[in-house]
Amino acid sequence: MGACDAEALAHYVAVGELGLDGRIAPSPGVLLAALHAGGEGKGLICPAAQGAEAAWAGSVEVLAAPDLLALLAHLKGTALLSTPQPGEAEVVGRGPDLRQVKGQETAKRALEIAAAGGHNLLMSGPPGAGKSLLAACLPGILPPLTPSEALEVSMVASVAGELDGGKMTRTRPFRSPHHSASMPALVGGGLKVRPGEISMAHLGVLFLDELPEFQRAVLDSLRQPLETGTVSVARANSHVTFPARVQLIAAMNPCRCGHLGDPALACSRAPRCAADYQARVSEPLLDRIDLHVEVQGVSAADLTLPPPAEGSTDVAQRVAAARRVQSERYNGHGPRTNAEADGELLDEVATPDEPGRKLLADAAAAMRLSARGVHRVLRVSRTIADLAGAHQVGRIHVAEALSYRRQAPRN
Ligand SMILES: Nc1ncnc2c1ncn2[C@@H]1O[C@H](COP(=O)(O)OP(=O)(O)O)[C@@H](O)[C@H]1O
Ligand SMILES: [Mg+2]
Fold it and tell me: Can you give the residue ranges of every domain in the chain?
């Protein structure tokens, strides 16, 4: 309309939803647009409400305007827009403290290892044993996101339009979708492609409670992202790839009624019902879970015990120390945690000493471990050694890692 100099506008990328009255309303993906604009050597025009989000892109000039008139006034130099500052949300909602959990020492230990090395974990046991409670404690022991991780997580949230008030967060994602979740909700998709829960959990935790209750097809669609750390959503004539580097934490009852193994409570169909129930989770998915623990029910007597001396703060310190060892070890090699180490790199960092090697070879034959299974044991062994401050993986670390390994069923 000639309201301003078209030349001046050529140096900007503009994003926003323009209303008939000239107002500029928020629109998803502003952080990515800002990073893109910066890469092209341009500035960004975006809705005022999202200036704090765009400002995370760093040295990019951001014009965050509430409406067209304010934008024009700025371009003409009559009333300048203020420069938005990057917003940072407080670290909130760290969940319950491990001190609340009575007993369950094995499960707590497994949770600590999972947190330290980014490993997948499955807890199974009767209802009311504290599986959901243990999982809810995880955010309280995981280290906060590093600045570059926070940027990655915020980019996904930005695309999903879920970056609250444009505030980037250091809180590690923890997503727990309900078991009725659809495929697009979990892995992404829909008419306007949106990242799914597995991408919203990028660099954090995807918690699937009551694992066998999820639709089988939905669970199987998680296998590939769990391996590669990315998820591709097919569209009519293209596909979209989102990051999906998650730690899977799952919980399940051993059978539908949950009381298998307790003769007083088990239903009349036990133990056949258990086999049916467990078969709802496919073998390849279970094979991708490094740590399997059986959580036993707690007795009323256990519940009246004094709270354990050690709480989430102590565990979080050990986890943070182990993560520091890992980030120094992998500095510049790609992986962030032991769970991501692969191939030659894994051999280099996790090859056990001679007794450890012998134990692993014997166990691999006896437990009929797949090559993937052996690699998973090695990664967990490396984390256990890191928690112990050991330079080389020893027999004792391999032995503990093997104790969490699930045995393939014999048929
Ligand atoms: N080991 C435990 N120590 C303390 N409280 C427990 C424990 N296990 C269960 N509870 C109590 O029971 C409630 C239900 O436990 P929950 O974690 O939902 O069990 P599950 O998921 O195994 O069915 C918890 O919120 C907690 O109050
Ligand atoms: Mg539960």
Answer: 6-85, 98-303, 341-411
